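INPUT
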Amino acid sequence: MVKYLAQRLLLMGITVTGMVTVVFFLLRLIPGDPAEYMLGDYATEESLAALRAELGLDLPIHEQYVRFMGRAFSGDLGTSVVTGQPALAEVLASLPWSAALALAGIVIAIVIGVPLGVISAVRQGSWTDLGVMLVALAGISFPVFWVGLVAILVFAHELPLFPALGATSSENPLTRLHHLALPALVLGISVAAYIARLTRSAMLEVLGQDYVRVARAMGVRENRVVYRLALRNALIPVLSVIGVTFAWSLGSAILVEAVFSRPGLGSMILKAIFARDYQLVQAGVMVLSLAVVLINTSLDIVYGIVDPRVRTA
Amino acid sequence: MTDVSTTADTAAPTRRAFGGIRSRYLRHPGFMTGLIVLVLISIVAVGAPVFAPYSPLETDMLKTLAPPSADHLLGTDQFGRDVLSRLIWGARISLQVAAMVVLISLTFGTLIGAVAGYAGGWVERVIMVGNDILLAFPGFLLALALVAVRGSSLDSVILAVSIAYTPRVAAVMRSVVLTIKPRPYIEASQAIGMTASRVLFVHVIPNALPPVIVVATVSAATAILAEAGLSYLGLGVQPPAATWGNVISDGQSYIISNPWISISAGGCIAIVVIALNLLGDGLRDTLDPQMRRYAGSRML
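OUTPUT
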């Protein structure tokens, strides 16, 4: 177990270093002078020189890289050129909004997706299976921002059950929850469709295994086969499915935040892109990606504890 | 199920694996539905100048935000442009993005994955660490960041989405190649003195392709959604060009009074994506039951 834990953490360290490297080179892909690009046509020579010095653009590329990595790992992700605030502080300020949306979305997705996937697998080939799979197919095929627009049209306008805006300045937790509900549902339903499809195939794989066949041949009741023998073993792949969908749901959350004009990491990154505030874009992309790596590593460690087979794989 | 695994182990598996199951495609309702829908939409996209009743860019300030009518089947947008014509021209962009992304990510992903899987050792380790790093980014976020840096254009979108999705193809390719490498015909080819690159191109890659084609089909669907998302956010192909994402974004401000603009564009995206997913599911079911393991979760 200690070896498994050490391996996971080492792998996470390599991945994080690699991701920060990718983000470093991303800014260098800007054609021409990034400083000029970020400050626009009306920038003064002094402000350009100051930004170049801050970014280290006058240094050779390997020195820039070492400096960038050193700063990144000590938590200095640069300064926002628009607000003048440290980029990391800006990112952390918008993080709770995204975390709430992603968390609520993934909970809704699990609650809807896992049972549907299990039912569908158990009744493979039935009308229920076909129905669930058609709905799930639609769920992964409609663009999430479009589903959001339709949800606003139907549930905020035609039937005024929810506010059309995904956020409020109110301190009242119930009002906040009310504003969060529709965006979270939209995100949750699209992720639920993925989870249902993947749960179904994980479940089918387990149901096709020899020990399930043996249990059935020995006359074990079907309910017991499905829920005691199969589902327990399918839970591991289902857990990993949830880990995989998490990264994807953070990508969708960017679009959901845009539709519902909700603050958050996605909206912040978008605003920074349009303002050419690249240090802020960098910081946002880095934090969002790190969140994914952290969650996936934690899930990996949880599987290792739950299922000893994973450790040797 | 058993016949697939036996064909895979014999000396000339490729032709038999494809030939023996051709009739199964025709009997797979999902595959056929997806194929027919895609062919029809491709015809409409290629023949856009013929099929579109109006120019997608022609504005008519006297007829802005007109409801659906005999003249304009899906109404007009805020500049008086015919929505149906914009959707027909938009099909070109979406299909072009899908085709190019599949071409690029399939070419590079297949090569990278095959070399990593076949070479093994440190070559494999180095390639796969790099691949896993790119995979760790949420795909849409990576595409978004690349477009932001390179500037918004059709080429940028294609390049960004391809870079974001190539590692997924490579990961699948490598795991398939690992299952092919120990097979007797590979060992036999090496024994008779074939060079590594010949074994790779003649035996390994062709036999590993079926699962990768499934992944490529799914990535075409993802590419269309990603392009639409980027266009919707204003980072994709720039207005006034007609793309489905742009039409949704144009209609967003009028979603209450003229819901048809955004709704019809979303419907177009969904129809193509559903068709591609049906095609992918059909290929997966027909080509090789084993590949269920690779196709789904790896794509996200």
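end of record. Chain B has one domain: 82-298.
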